[in-house]
Amino acid sequence: MAGLARSSHGRTVRGLTLSRGSKFFGGQFGRMFRALPPADFGESDTKSEENLLNLGKAMVADHDPPKDGPDAEESGIPAAYTYLGQFIDHDLTFDPASSLQQQDDPDGLVDFRTPRFDLDCVYGKGPDDAPYLYSGDNRFIQGRPLTGAASNPNARDLPRSQPTDPSQPEDINNSRRAIIGDPRNDENVIVSQFQGLMHRFHNKLMSEDTGSAESRFQRVQREVRFHYQWMLVNDFLPTIVWEDVLKDVIPHHFKNTNVRRDPPRITYFDLAHEPTMPLEFSAAAYRFGHSMVRPGYRLSETVPPLAIFDPDPNASLTGFHEFRSNWAIDWGRFMDLGPLDFGDENNPNDPGNSKRLQLAYRIDTSLVDPLGSLPNPPFAPPFSLSGGKLTSLAQRNLMRGWRMRLPSGQAIARAMGIEPLKDANILVGKFTGDPADIKGSVASISAAFEDNCPLWTYVLAETKEVTVTIKTNQGDKPIKTRKLGPVGGRIVAETFIGLMLSDSSSYFNQNPIWTPSKANAQGRFGLRELIKTALS
């Protein structure tokens, strides 16, 4: 290929002439593997784009409407983790000026969100600088009551603004937008109500605090952050990352000790400078969650399954507006909060199927059909080099990784001392075990991908199959589940743990022997316990 300073739309792409060894720290994006050459996928930009768009098209499944009942694509991971993952992403990264063109230059890409697990997406700038988020006693203001879920009688919407023109129908330009620390946490109904859970968790701890009123907010905020960080380390990572990777990165988790007695093993995340957000994480590995999204979800016993996208706002889970007041979420359909009733799974008409826990789709190289055509608004499409609109999330991810000049998955595997996957084992499709669900190998789509797989696709293809057992009223249910493997899992785990170690306010640094006050009787605190506490 030609040198890095290629032109796009008649001019040099911003940042491609900069040294890959450039070191800007503090609020910027960086790289884990600076010395590796970037991957290209054709003899020209036009051919690279063509091959990536074809791969992206192959990574989108055929139409599959939302439904109750079992699904061959399900994993053993409750669906709530999909949206916890989205919430975490919003907590870490925010670039309001981003586009494919601007993001070619990571040295010019500013992360306006602090690269710390500090819940600034919830707290904003705090009650002094963002008083509109808080009541007089520094609890979060809540919105209108939500109904429809008997298990969640105290559900509330987020507080919302008034529409620009109340006399006109509400749409994306004339809507009641959520008044919260990060507007993205209103982009769909599920993450919106998860934001509300975090507000309720804070309010719960505020109501229980008996210390000095003068420092109550700071004390409770610290306690909430510590619970959140503990959940990420001891629940979220073990849920989505292969155990063999985690045993090496966080040995203290498996020895029931702490990071002082058994320090994490960080090899690739830069701990020597102010923390940056690795592009290998943000533009590739952490996008694994897109493959976990279902085509739709049932919110409660009173609302039938709703599509994630639908032109009718009363039938769609899209956000950035005031949704129907009877759409309160029954969180027991997203997280195993208690005894589970899976019903008679051999009878699709069994009413018990409408009560079953909804499970995330497997982490694999297939995205559900709705993600192949993102609605606009609210997701304004970027443009390809040829000027076409990129409405497919898979195509956007692949184009972004290429324009960010990421190395191939095989190159990073070798840099880690890992034998890369053979081309024949990098499969595209649904990892259900049915050969009919596989569309072929990545190299069968184009010879440009031979020993040269885009990092995002590679991370999804190398996932490891494990068996997760869910306890139900019908007995134990073993489910084959995919977890992030040696490359993707390592990038994600090291980024999480590296950010925790780099943050002087994390519990790793302030109190590594701290334990959650909201843990269950067995000492466990995870997403399940957070939800239960917020609902109580």
Word description of this protein:
- Helix content is 29%, strand content 8%.
- Helix 1 packs antiparallel against helix 10, helix 5 (189-208) packs across helix 16 and helix 6 runs antiparallel to helix 14 (488-502).
- With 536 residues, it is α+β, with helices and mostly antiparallel strands.
Brief summary:
The chain is of the alpha+beta class and 536 residues long.
Characteristic terms for this protein:
alpha+beta; two-stranded parallel ribbon; 16 helices; globular; disordered N terminus
Number of strands: 12
Helix content: 25-40%
| Largest β sheet strand count, sense and barrel closure | 2 strands, antiparallel
* Low-confidence residue ranges: 1-27, 95-103
The whole-number mean of residue pLDDT values reads 89
Q: Oligomeric status of the shown chains?
A: single chain
What is the H/E order? EEEHEHHHHHHHEHEEEHHEEHHEEHHH
Structural class: alpha+beta
Q: How large, in whole angstroms, is the Cα Rg? A: 23 Å
Tally of DSSP helical segments: 16
Measured between the Cα atoms of the first and last residue, the distance is 60 Å
